[in-house]
Each structure stands twice: as C-alpha cells, then as structure tokens.
Amino acid sequence: MKRLSQKESGLDTKTYARLARLSSPIAIQDFLDALPMNWEKGGDTHHSPARALLAKKAHCIEGALIAATALWIAGEPPLLMDLWADEERDGEDHLVALYKRGRYWGAVSKTNHASIRFRDPVYRTPRELALSYFHEWFVNSTGEKTLVAYSKPYDLSCLGPGWVATKEDLWHLDERLNALPHYPLVPAGYERYLRRADVMELRAGRLIEWEKSDPRT
User: Fold this and answer.
1) Burial class of residue 215 (count of CB atoms within 10 Å of its CB; 0-12, 13-18, 19+)
2) Helix, strand or coil for residue 51?
3) Which pLDDT score, from 0 to 100, does residue 214 have?
4) How many of the other CB atoms lie within 10 Å of CB of 62?
5) Which phi-psi region, left, alpha or beta, contains residue 189 (left: φ > 0; alpha: ψ -120 to 50)?
6) Whole-angstrom Cα distance, residue 58 to residue 148?
C-alpha cells in the first residue's frame, strides 16, 4: 500500500508528523486511549481526523478515522469495520479500524468502556474478530447482549484522501458504511439461548475511562 503523503493528506506539518510517529497499531491505540472522549455536548459531530485532533477529543467513529489515517500514513490500508447493535434493545453501534499482520486480523478501537477495545492480530477472519466483541457487548441497565452484525472491511482509500482534513462533517460516510453488506453474528432463532450479563459483568461494564463531567469535552 502506498503511504499517504502529507501533501495528499491535507494535514499541516505538525499534525502529519504526530500521526507519522505512530509506527504500529499498538502505538496508535495508546494515542487514542490518551485522547479524551468527545461527548458532543454542542451537538452531534462526525469530525474528520484533522478536526478531531484540533479539538483534542474524539468519539468512536472519529477515533477509528484517526486510526485509519495513521495506518495509511504508515503504508497500510485504511480499513474500517462497522459493528451493528440492536437499537430496539438500546444497543449502540461501533466502528473499528482494521489491520493485518500476516494472515491475521486485529483492530484499533476508540471506546470509553473496558471491554470493546484493541484487538491483537490473532483472528483468522473479520467474523472471528467481530465475535470477540460479542460477549461483552451488553446494555448496562438490562444485561442484554446486543451485537448483531458486522460489515465487510471498507477501504477508505477508495474515496481518496479528501476526508482526512475536510472541515465538513462526514455524515456521508455513515451512509456508505450502512450500505455495506452486513453479516449476522447470532444464528436465526438462537437469541433465546443468550444469557444476560451477570452482576459481576454488569459491574465491569460500568467501568469507564472518561467521565462526562470532564471539562475538556
């Protein structure tokens, strides 16, 4: 994969250099973990990587785009995987950046929760990787497991680099991701076999990294 150059990215010299220093998926994940959550207190956002880095905060989608940009700068494809949850049961969707080491898949994930985070490159397929999130993906109020589907990997390089530094919100990207083929994780009729999260799991699920009271966000 051809590296994304500074000129192509539209990023300023300092921001590009900052991402270029993230030379591995682990370094990218460490960077995202230190970036405060974007609680969208001024309204919903879908910031480009440049705008999110300028604001010094990011939610899961914005974090995935930052990770994809850093991977592209490092010469790896900027791949995303869309994870769907059952909204009727208060599930929340998520987006991760994918990477490969040899034949195996891993993921970089910006989240406020303890479980649906970084994945090491040990998964043979995107489905295996998506399933690694299934058990801990539950509603904290009810314990219901809500992860229902995952998308085929989407290569952002097919859009060109214009999304990296645009000042516009990237709502059109949501439409593209939602239009991707998505594959179910729970076999039809097997919902009745799913066990709700127990007391210990619920307690762990309430552990968060960034408080909503954080004045920076």
Assistant:
1) exposed
2) helix
3) 60
4) 27
5) left
6) 25
216 within some domain: no
Torsion of CA 58, 13, 154, 67, to 10 degrees: -40
Distance CA 89, CA 125 (A): 27
Q: What pTM was computed for the model?
A: 0.95
From the list 93, 98, 105, 101, the residue with the least C-alpha distance to 182 is 93
Task: Assess if residue 217 is contained within a domain.
Answer: no
Task: Give CA–CA dist 59/212, Å, rounded.
Answer: 12
Q: Alpha-carbon distance 163 to 69, whole Å? A: 10
CA distances to 17, 96, 102, 140 from 204, in Å: 37, 21, 33, 9
pLDDT of 91 reads 77
**How crowded is residue 186: how many other Cβ atoms within 10 Å of its Cβ?**
15
Q: Where in the sequence is the domain holding 143, given as residue range(s)?
A: 6-205
Indicate whether 152 belongs to any domain.
yes
Digit-coded pLDDT (tens) for 23-67: 999 999 999 999 999 999 999 999 999 999 999 999 999 999 999
Three-class SS of residue 85? strand
